[in-house]
Amino acid sequence: MIFYVFVATWPKTVSGFACTAGTTASVVVIKNDKIYVAHVGDSSVVVGSKETSCADPKFRAHLVTIDHKPESPKERKRIESNGGKVLAKSGVHRVVWRRPRPSHKGPVRRSTPIDDIPFLAVARALGDLWSYNPDQDVFVVSPDPDTAVYDLDLVRHRSIILASDGLWNMVRPLEAILKVEATTHINVSVIS
């Protein structure tokens, strides 16, 4: 992964720490009746479908990604096996940032006092260079995406929504799919 190249050369923060910037991401590619999905973090992909097999066609929302959260057993195991920790802060599980105390000056040694700061509420992201563990040459907050391939049914599948937790914490997936479907019909009637 290209992020390993940046650890040594990326600019430090004003405090001298590794970069704390990062982002979650979801990507969808549609090709040859297939939906290719890749994602890191809590940006989710939802596919909207119209079930036509029953007398009363219904719309459904299919969540095709699973958020990478530190409290997930799979992610917690990966974090801990890579030398990281997960702690709860205000009821939210977070990946711990192990950093020298602000008063420390000079090189970090085994005797250097370290603070464990519950920091990030996602287990995978792009960036977050602070999470690099040089002892294992790995990022505790992994940039490696989950990937999947799904068959595309052009009759049933009506929409795909890629969104961050900013949407999904406020709007249920089915509600979002129904809004897209309603908007699609409005736009088609305006154009026609």
TrEMBL record:
UniProt keyword list: Signal
Signal peptide: 1-16
UniProt xrefs under InterPro entries: PP2C (IPR015655), PPM-type-like_dom_sf (IPR036457), PPM-type_phosphatase-like_dom (IPR001932)
Statement: the UniProt record of this protein carries the keyword Signal: yes
Pfam families for the chain: PP2C
Keyword Signal on entry: yes
Residue intervals of the PPM-type phosphatase domain: 1-192
GO molecular function: protein serine/threonine phosphatase activity
The protein, known as: PPM-type phosphatase domain-containing protein
Organism: Capitella teleta (Polychaete worm)
